[in-house]
Amino acid sequence: MDERTQQIITILLDSFWPMLVAGIKVTIPLTLISFTLGLILALLTALARISGIKPLAAIARFYVWVIRGTPLLVQLFIIFYGLPNLGITLDRFVAAVIGFTLSVGAYNSEIMRAAILSISKGQWEAAYSIGMTRRQALKRIILPQAARVTVPPLGNSFISLVKDTSLAATITVTEMFQTSQQVVAATYEPLWIYIEVAVIYLLFSTVLSALQNSLEHRFERYVQK
Fold it and tell me: Locate the ABC transmembrane type-1 domain: which residues (predicted)?
């Protein structure tokens, strides 16, 4: 093994732990917080879209239109670099959470809306026939069934968000990709360091995909065949 190869191996071994720690301490929490808040926002947006209340539905449609029609990177820049012009200065982590939450909320609201609308009207009518209100029918009958339908697409959305958090590096959040950039600046080995961080993202995604498959199989037990 020549000296150059030994040097690269040493750099990769030394950089692996700092990047993994950044992934565990920043990337994963950023993903979990943003996704959880995003799901709440997505559900509220989906319910607003199907509520039949025109002003509420119009606001929800406008929000989805704006977020889905503009790049996530631009949204992060507006939140972190643009809002200070209006006197609103946010912590970089908070800015990232807001940006990712808005993105998750907009995209997943369409998943939830489609899932709710996929439940047959007969389910609503059956609930009404036994004296349930619309809210009770939604909570006890419709949403539990819709939740099963949303598992695969929401799982994919969560895995995508793990990778999208790398964009937080552009607003100086010290997550996994930002850490890899710092390592590159110190070692001048962009090829191998970026391959290494890509492998770590791949490991995270593989574990999450396995968990998603397990969850899907669990829900399949309740599906009539």
Answer: 24-212
